[in-house]
Hints:
The complex is a heterodimer.
Chain A lengths: L1 H14 L22 E3 L9 H5 L5 E5 L4 E6 L9 H5 L5 E3 L15 E6 L1 E2 L6 E2 L4 H6 L6 E2 L4 E2 L17 H4 L1
Antiparallel strand pairs in A: 1-4, 2-3, 3-5, 6-7, 8-9
Chain B lengths: L1 H8 L5 E6 L5 H8 L13 E2 L8 E5 L2 E2 L3 H10 L5 E5 H6 L9 E3 L9 E3 L6 H12 L9 E3 L14 E4 L2 E4 L6
Parallel strand pairs in B: 1-2, 1-3, 3-5, 5-7
Antiparallel strand pairs in B: 4-6, 9-10
Amino acid sequence: MSILSKLEETLVCLKAGRVTLSYPAEAKPLPEKFRGRPIFDASKCTGCAGCANNCPAREILVYDVCQEIRILKYIGLRCTYCGRCADLCPEKAITMSQEFENGTDKIGDIQQRLELFMSTCQRCGRCFKEPSVLEQLKMKGYRFDDLQNERWIFRSQARLEGDAVVDDVKIELD
Amino acid sequence: MWKNLCQKMFGRSLWVYHANSGGCNGCDIEVLNSLTPYYDVERFGIKLVGSPRHADVMLCQGPAMRSTAQALKRAYDAMPAPKLVFAIGSCACGGGVWFDSYSVIGPVEKIIPVSYYVPGCPPRPEAIIYGVAVALGLVDKKTAPVQCKEPELPIPRYHPGELRGQGELVVYEKAEKV
Lengths: 174, 178
């Protein structure tokens, strides 16, 4: 009886295959609706900041450095890949990619930083962006030229303070 | 620096201590998943040990909480000297979705120095293995910071070579009525 059971065990062991995936060499295909890290498309983004207002982890920051430039920054450290930003983006500028292998040694490697050129409303001075490239061409001029008087107006004096360091996490930590 | 240290000191095998300082257990399950035969990390000599005194690497899951920060610090101090800390999951990397809660201090790097980050909520077991493989020097990291800049700011409407100064204003010579 016992010999038979041992033989049966041997047979089972011979029949068993190998399940281990030699992972970094070969990968298993991902499920279809897998959400990896979001990818931001600067050419489609209109700077409406809907993603920043609805991010549950508050990982998307939007700030205006001057009248013409709005900066949208995705930090991504505590991003849970919930996909809410991609869902509510009106221009579909955010897509959830299938990249999940994000292990790094530097904290700033996951960041994405978009500099958006915005035009300003002549009444209130706030930034907006024309919806399409054609309508941007049609506009009568940006903030800094005055077409009625055929003059060139100096643009606002606010400037970007050099190139912002990518690795700055002070905003996020404090 | 971390890479050189890893390849010198941790070339053979890593003994891993697995510290949860207040996470939701999701990352724990993914770490244990990577120890199963399907993603067998013992191929790389990685082994889970029960005490920080035996460990080379600490896998941190969960944010640094007010109640567990002291214990996390003590576990880090108990590890022998060439040591690495992996922050696994978005809680350990950045504080998680409850980063502004009263009981959460923040990411674990506020308490102990972190050498590698594996974001994700939870990260797939493949992602954790990939992070460890980046640390061991088996693969290159795939992420890089992305910066999209406008080509020229401001975009001139006219050709800037044909501008002439007139006192404080600058006048365009070939101005057309629009």
